[in-house]
Amino acid sequence: MSAWFDTVSSLKVKLGILVAASVVTAVLLSLLGSAARVPALLVLPVSVALALGVTQLLAAGMVAPLRRMTEVSRAMARGDYSGRVRTTATDEVGQLAAAFNRMAEDLATVDRERRDLIATVSHELRTPLTAMTAQLENLADGVVPADPGHLGDALDEARRLGRLVEDLLQLSRLEAGVVHLDRQDVALRALVEDSVAQVLAAGRPGTITLDIADDLLVGADPARLRQLLVNVLDNAARHAPAETSVRVTGGAGTGDGAGPGAGAGSWWLEVVDEGGGVAPEDRERVFDRFGTDGAGGTGLGLAVARWVAQLHGGTLRFLDPATGSGARLRLDVPATTPPASPSSPTREPAMTAPASALQPAERSVEPPARPAAQSQATTAPVRQQPGLDGLFGRFWPENGAPSGLRTVVAAAAAGLFAGFALSFNAVGITWTLVAIGCGVAALLTARGRRDPWTLACAGLALLLVLPMTLLDAWWVQMLGLLAATAVFLSGVTGARTLAGILLTGISWPLASLRGLPWFARSLRLAGTGSRTPAVVRTTAWSLLGLGVFGTIFASANPVFGSWVDQLVPNLTFNDLVGRAFLACFVFAATLGAAYLALNPADVEVLGGRRPPALANRFEWLVPVLVVDAVFVAFIAAQARALVGGEDYIQATTGLTYADFVHQGFGQLTLATALTVLVVWVASRRAGSTPEDRRWLYGSLGVLCALTLLVVASALRGMAVYQDAYGFTTLRLFVDVFEGWLGFVVLSIMAAGAAGLGRWLPRIALVSGAVALIGLAAINPDAWVAGRNLDRYDATSELDVRYLQTLSADAAPVIAERLPRDVARCVLQDLPSGSLRPEALDDPRAWNLARSRGEEALADVDLDGRPRPSAEECAGVWTAFDE
User: Fold this and answer.
1) Coil, helix or strand at residue 403
2) Which partner for 370 in 362, 375, 422, 753 could form a disulfide, CB atoms 3.0-4.6 Å apart?
């Protein structure tokens, strides 16, 4: 698919295909789920996740070249020019990648030439400097006399050094890409004669003969042309033997060079010597900077000469000598172009010389190299975070999370196991196994999997998912599952504050988006090492072969067919689609948790932010004291009611004592929870001076103490109400919840006194999980049934209708403590509820409480026998009440 997508030559078309594929995927999955009657809460996240997966699969190849460009650019900033962008895309991104590679190659060449230039210049400057220094030291020490000969030698070295520096200056001006050309009619012979005189005056031996017409006028910049002539004549004189002469010829037109100077107004010039000549393979190299052939030159003269020729639109090159020996250097200049204003710079024209001598303008813009550390320090402040890094910012940076193919495989295995083994009939052992498998897959990936906090949270999460196997009460099972998720995720992210715990819960669904690049790296969705197409093809062909030949052989051989029937579950269309959605959901949820564990979000990004303290103490102190006063008034009212007794309450409110204490239980629970909020806000807005701290601890200490009295009053009131009207699981749960809030308030007081406030969020989280584990450990439904039967023994009052609403957890208690006929009427609806046959016959839904409930039904003769009729039960109720 990736290779086919690369053949699309338009980025707009690719984006259109990407959007269309994502939309079609989401719509088809939604329609499929609707047709199979899969719950919308399962269809929606799976459809979104798979649409994002399709987007990532198609978009990974589109953005891979851009990511690679970013990596190579950063490497270039550090001085590494070896990186390249490899892609087969033909769209605008592919074209950009090709241009980027060309630029990288040019920069690599320029950088290499720069290093060579520095090394060569250092060598060339060191040679005359060393010689001149030695000669001057000898003169200064009196080793040699200061006669004209020795002084002349030192002067020669100084002049050589000066010529080298002058050549470098001229070359740097030419390579800057902008020079001033003062074109005018120049008498070529006169200019050549002046150049010859300058070369001979510099001490160059030999003779130079001219064969140029006196009246030949050419269009050129005389200063630049003299620079060219001096360099080529000096080069020829150095290479010519002492007994020979250098011949300079020139004329109008093309001569015999047939170069680009063809046409009226063109002219040519040749310099011929009888020296060793230039080998054909070296005729371009000698024009490179420092491309000397070892004859004693600097290696810059011919480079300067060629640049001047190219600035005039001409060429300078070596040709085969007519006599077969020596060197023949020819300059061809085309017809004079319109003269440029002396004040206007003329940019050098395009060149046709080899790559080593081409494009001086590109070289001129190459900045000087910087050390790697300086380069990084300079670019770091302006670096942009691309893609999802820019979206999530510092809340969730990509902290080098390694690719985790094994993590993806483990998550996929958890999803497949859930889709295959999870029971749709009832919550049972497979639900616990799936939850444990998902947790193990994420824990093995966690960065801090050996951290005590992470391990403690994982242990608590394990205990919280056990009720799905041990108990039948659905509300305990679901509370345990939710609490296990919250505790486990807080453990792998290392949340320490209330805001961090809340952000952890938000980060889990966001991981499906944040982890997409990591998911792509793990599967190698794009790039040269991509294995996804091969894996997809292999899986598709394997499944096709299994389905086709398995079906043929199953129909051809009854024995083989029976084996297939035993191995393959008999699923309806709805079951198959539902299990597919379930497998995808569990896979995505596990993968999100694994990525969150591998690369935790900075959930404490808000934890370090403390609002500024209020300037005036009364701004926070007065509200706290007002709340204290309200609590004092309430406690006084409670004490008055306690002292006055039921008669006072009846006369004042018209309520019985039990109704009175029960009426405000919910409000007291809310007040307790709000007290924790008041303490948190006040502690963050109070000042940090010693006096502020004393007022804070005093006012909040009083508030917490009064809150504990409220908690005690609420728990006592609920106990009185339960003694009067019986026990329910809801009343039991709110008792536990109120008790947990009281423990949190007590922890606040202890932590404030010990200065351990930073541990409070974790204490509250762990204590809440422990409270829920303790609630599950007492088996709430069975405990409530037992307390109600105890109350019946004491008062002869029993809410039979409520007992009928309890789960199978209460069945053994009811069967054991009630008369058989009464127990049969109480438990008669269980076979159509939690103990329905399809739940009991499904081994994947095995549950300890339902297994014990089934035994209780057998004890009261409800296992497969007809249930008592309404008339029979009415008689039983009457006799039981009497």
Assistant:
1) coil
2) 375
Contact 42, 424 (CB under 8 A): no
Judged by phi (left if over 0) then psi (alpha if -120 to 50, else beta), residue 278 lies in: beta
- CA-wise closest residue to 458 among 493, 484, 431: 484
* Sign (positive or negative) of CA dihedral 852, 855, 860, 862: positive
Tokens at residue 198, please? Answer: 């300058």
Alpha-helical (H) ranges within 294-428 are: 301-311, 360-364, 372-379, 387-392, 405-421
Query: 2 with 530: CB under 8 angstroms?
Result: yes
Residue whose pair of structure tokens reads 């009611």 in the numeric block: 641
- Which residues lie closer than 8 Å to 128 by C-beta, 6 or more apart? 157, 158, 160, 161, 164
- In which residue are the tokens 């190659």 written? 105
**What is residue 211's three-state secondary structure?**
strand
Terminal C-alpha separation, the chain: 79
CA–CA separation, 4 and 88 (whole Å): 10
Residue 773, pLDDT score = 95
Contact 703, 758 (CB under 8 A): no
User: 177-342: what fold?
Assistant: Heat Shock Protein 90 (3.30.565)
Residue 361 · residue 349 · CB < 8 Å: no
Over the stretch 337-381, which tens digit does the pLDDT of each residue have? 544 333 333 333 333 333 333 333 333 333 333 333 333 333 333
CA angle 437–736–800, rounded 5-degree value: 95
What pLDDT, in 10s, does the model give residues 409-426?
A: 888 888 888 888 888 888
Which tokens hold the place of 537?
Answer: 């093809």
Lowest mean pLDDT among 385-394, 771-780, 841-850: 385-394
The number of beta carbons lying within 10 Å of the beta carbon of residue 585 is 20
Give the HSE-up count for residue 562: Cα atoms under 13 Å, Cβ half-sphere. 2
Exposure string over 857-876, b if 16+ CB within 10 A, otherwise e = bebbebeeeebbeeeebeeb
Residue pair 297/235 in contact (Cβ under 8 Å)? The answer is yes
| Alpha helical stretches, state H, 557-664 | 558-567, 573-598, 618-653, 657-663
User: For residue 758, which amino acid is it?
Assistant: R
With contact defined as beta carbons under 8 Å apart, do 306 and 353 qualify?
A: yes
What are the strands of the beta sheet with 207-211, ordered from one edge? 207-211, 245-252, 267-273, 327-333, 315-319
Q: How far apart are CA 304 and CA 171, in angstroms?
A: 6
Residue with tokens 């409110």: 653
Q: How far is CA 738 from CA 30, 455, 712, in A?
A: 43, 28, 9
Count helices and strands in the chain by DSSP H and E runs: 34, 9
Is the model's pLDDT at 802 over the cut of 90? no
Q: How many other C-beta atoms lie within 10 A of the C-beta of residue 150?
A: 16
d(CA 481, CA 495) in angstroms, rounded, equals 19
Q: In which region does residue 863 sit, left (phi positive, over 0), alpha (psi from -120 to 50) or beta (all else)?
A: beta
Cα separation, 334 vs 186, in Å, equals 15
Strand ranges for 160-202 from DSSP E? 178-179, 184-187
